[in-house]
Specification:
With about 110 residues, the protein is an all-alpha fold. The protein is built from seven helices and no strands. It starts with a helix and ends with a helix.
């Protein structure tokens, strides 16, 4: 549910329907999964340090309030995650999936 919430149902549907297609970081950024994309790990590390410093100087009460607002509507996720895990487990154990895995093993 976290990825779907972040990128929206339309982009999530496109990604899952085209499950064998690779969606790169630019696509993920356009859809809102990432806010920034960096060319190197060093650039990313530098920006993480800057953001961490900025956040550490923020008002803790304001940050707590923001967190509550940003996570609104997720209180049912414990149940949803269990339901989706059960569904995924059934699909992974299906004959279709077992056959697909065996085909990949025998390539």
């Amino acid at each position: 549910p976290a990825v779907e919430r972040k990128i929206g149902t339309s982009a999530f549907s496109a990604m899952t329907i085209n499950a064998t297609k690779w969606f790169d970081s630019s696509w993920a950024r356009e859809k809102g999964l990432y806010t920034e994309v960096f060319d190197t790990a060093a650039e990313m590390d530098s920006e993480i340090k800057k953001l961490s410093a900025n956040l550490s100087n923020s008002n803790p009460e304001a940050m707590e309030g923001l967190k509550r607002v940003m996570w609104e509507g997720t209180n049912h996720w414990d149940t949803l995650l269990m339901e989706r895990a059960e569904s995924s487990g059934k699909l992974v154990l299906s004959d279709f999936t077992k056959n697909a895995i065996n085909l990949l093993k025998n390539k």
